[in-house]
Amino acid sequence: MAAGLQLMIIDDEPIVGKRLKRMFEKEGYAVETFLNGASAIEALEKKHFDIIVTDLMMGSVDGMKVLDTAVKKNAGTRVIIITGFGDQGTIDEALNKGASDFLIKPFKFEELYKAVKKAESGLKAT
Amino acid sequence: MQLKIWHKMIIGIAIPSLIALLGGLLAYGYITDVKNRQGFVMIADDMKEHVLEIRRNEKNLLLHKDVEYFKYCGDSISVLKNYLSNISPQSTAEIGESNFSELRNSIQMYSDTINNLYGQFQTETDVVEKVREEGRKLEAYIAAKKSNGELSTNFILNVRRLEKNYMLFRDKGSFIAFESAILTMKNIVPICYECIPYTQVAYSLSKAYNNSESLINELQATGVKLENITYGIAGKERSRINAFLNRTHTLLVAALILLCTIGPLLVYKTASYIVAPIKRLSDITKKITEGDLNQRAPLKEHDETYSLAMSFNTMLDQLQLTHHSLEQSIELLHEKQIEAEKRASLGFLISGVTHELNNPLNNISLTAESMREDINELTLEELKEYIQDILSQSERAKHIVSDLLEFVGTHKAAVMEKLDIINLIEEAASLVANQLRVSNINLKMDIPNAPFFINGSKSKLEEIFVNIMINAVHAMKSSGRITISARPDKEHKRIIIDISDTGCGIPEKDLKNIFEPFFTTKPSGEGTGLGLSVAHSLVMKHSGDISVQSKLGEGTTFTITLPGFEEGLL
């Protein structure tokens, strides 16, 4: 069990948030979902999240901006990017900025779960 | 004409100069002649002066009948003779030998007459002395006798008075008075021995007087002749000068006319010959500037412009070659650019399709996975929701594919029919009315009451308006106003439809991409990025036009222009 780690899920596709919330909660995470980057950044100001799973393309405040803000706020926060389309340039940019993983949609829950676990082990190491 | 420019220039300048020079030279020649002739006129005038001097002395001589004046006359004749002998033979020949021989003869005749007159004058003086002597004797006789018949002392005294008068004046009047007195004396005393000597010498006097008279007449006639000759010579020389001057005048006028006509004509012709090849080059340069590189300078003149034209043509050959290779390079570059653009837009399209399709696929996959994991825990409601999500996401994927096909134009052809576009706009508006109400958006319609017919597909046209209105709804988020206005343009047989919103507006940098497929600034799920590009391709299919104007923060207006209905286009 993940001992109540704070997980933030941001995707403008509501289904993604709903399904992932249910599945991660089953695994013992405290999950909060957001439909856009702006509201997620707002929540980051108020509360600490251990792991952030964010979509990349979401209108004016995109996943890259969320990544920037989260890393700036707390270097220990792990950010996993999920996106419908990712060229190598974008992937490299995200990883350089400190993203711990990059998943292309459609992905299996297991893959994301693995990525989260990996991020979690990173958290423990620090 | 195979002449060099400087040859042409020399011809153009030299010929008028030659005309001027010729005129000047001729005028100079005539003026020199006139100058020489003026010398002859002076000679003639001098001769005239001398003759006048002779004649003045002659007049004095005849007036005073004095020996001294004979000397004066002789002197002035000598002066003239001397003057004549001093005239150069050349001048004599120029003025005319005959004139001079006539003059010399007349002078000689005049001189002889003067001498004769002098002799006659001496004779007359002797006779006068005799008359005086005999007069004194007769007077003494008459006075001693007191009277001889009718001859009175008084009469004789009167005769002697008339005699003295004549002695004194020696003129015609006094002579006639004396002669008539002698004749009266003869009539009074026909036989008077004492009177005979007196009357005889009186008769001799009369004879001498008459001789003098005829000599005087001869002298005067010769004097007049002398005058006429010298006047004639002077007049002739003057008229010759006038003739020369007239000729010079005519010549100068002729030269001037020639200079004024041929001169400018030659200069003009020369200038034209010089300028013609340069002008041709200039014209060709102009044509080349306008883009015609096939122009070449004609090699007509064999002057300095020939080599210029040759170099010019060589330069043009080089230029054309360079131009050609440049064109080829540009074409190649263009092709490469088009290729790159094609690749880029294909990449853009693929990334758009991938992104758009992967989202619903991800949703389906996650939902299915979740169902598989939790199948036993899920309530019936939850299962229904999951199944509905899978269905709606499948539908979404289908729409994306269909939009894509619509965009690339492989979808089934739309049925075109005669449609009232006004009515269609109202129907399209009613399709989105519910969504507008939910989003708290007002709809304002500014459309005419009368129908406006066009050729079109009902479903496609509805799709255009719905797509644009949905785009507007997304731009306004929670509230705002959409205004649809339609203006029929009867003149151009078309209708102009504006769809405006009060939304966030489109940044200027994005305006040019707004009709590109998969171009979107909206969050995922709110639009595929195909709506406006599909609207654009559908308007094009209706032979219409679509454009966009937007101001950030104020709103966006899409303007659609559709042609009016025309029979035969269905």
Structural account:
The complex is a heterodimer of chains A (about 130) and B (about 575). Chain A has about 130 residues and is α/β, with parallel strands linked by helices. Chain A has a domain of about 80 residues: Response regulator (Rossmann fold, 3-Layer(aba) Sandwich). Helix content of chain A is about 50%, strand content about 20%. A five-stranded parallel sheet of chain A has the order 2-1-3-4-5, with helices on both faces. Chain A is globular. The mean pLDDT of chain A is about 90. Chain B has about 575 residues and is of the alpha+beta class. Chain B folds into three domains: about 250 residues, no CATH class; about 90 residues, Signal transduction histidine kinase, dimerisation/phosphotransfer (DHp) domain (Helix Hairpins, Orthogonal Bundle); about 150 residues, Histidine kinase-like ATPase, C-terminal domain (Heat Shock Protein 90). The two termini of chain B are about 70 Å apart. Classes of the chains: A alpha/beta (about 130), B alpha+beta (about 575). The interface between A and B is medium-sized, with 28 and 27 residues.
Largest sheet strand order of chain A = 2-1-3-4-5
Helix fraction of chain A by DSSP (H/I, runs of at least 4): 40-55%
- Sheet having the most strands of chain B: 5 strands, mixed
Architecture (CATH level 2) name of the domain at 43-126 in chain A: 3-Layer(aba) Sandwich
Q: What percent of residues of chain B adopt helix (DSSP H or I)?
A: over 70%
Q: Look at the helices and sheets of chain A and give the structural class.
A: alpha/beta
- Radius of gyration of chain A (CA) equals 13 Å
Oligomeric form of this entry?
A: heterodimer
Order of helices and strands of chain B: HHHHHHHHHEHEEHEEHHEE
Please report the number of helical segments of chain A: 5
Helix/strand/pairing class of chain B, anyone? alpha+beta
Q: Which whole number gives the mean pLDDT of chain B?
A: 84
Shape of chain B: rod-shaped
The profile of the biggest β sheet of chain A is: 5 strands, parallel
